[in-house]
Specification:
It is built from 12 helices and 11 strands. It is α+β, with helices and mostly antiparallel strands. Helix 2 links the parallel strand 2 and strand 3.
Length: 253
Amino acid sequence: MITISNDHIYHQFMQSCSNAQSSIQLVSPYLKENIFREIGQVKSKKTSIELVTSMTVHNAIAGATDLQAIKYCLKMNGITYNRTNLHAKMYLFDQKFGIVTSANLTNGGLHHNYEASVLFDEPNLIRQLDQVITTLKADELTGLVTIENLEQTDLLANKIKAKYNAAKAKQKTLGTDLLRQLTGWNALVFQIINEKITKDEFTLQEVYNYKSSLKQIYPDNHNVEAKIRQTLQNLRDIGLIEFVSKGKYKKGY
């Protein structure tokens, strides 16, 4: 069976969550908490759940994503991945039924917006979709979400949200306020990105250009470049930057 539909997929999606006996794999950049609570109500406790989403401070401030939805997924013992440049929406149930769609796991996506979806159980397409999701999870640009990452992103977003409307906030001012919430290497590298690099997209080499100043602060660190790479991964994992491709990044605020 292969069906193309422009109907709202909420009921089909929830029924598929309910029917799943072994695994649910969800790929959606934007999320709402109530959708995940409803998934938790209908899915079997023995059914595993995995989520790939886009967890950035900007998405949280703008209200595009509920960080509580990610927290609820983790509460269901779900393994959650962060791919900050994610735009795909793909759902796979028991490796038997798949949905590739324009619909996010939001109220708009499942209930209200005009969306289009391909629904299928054809084995070859199921294998292809499973491979796409597996490759996405294993990609170096995809990180694993921990409760510590989530809480730090939530803390940053809540502190800034109280003062700014994301649609109107000036990026550098927002970056300065975010910087005040960071410490150690995270603060130093983020300061370089925010104050020294004016472009939205930047390269690893551009950050390396400031390694001498970092060496002055940490003279006992004899591998500053490796520490910079580690810190950039930390900043990605809490949603402050995005990995675009190998050695290339984008500000996520």
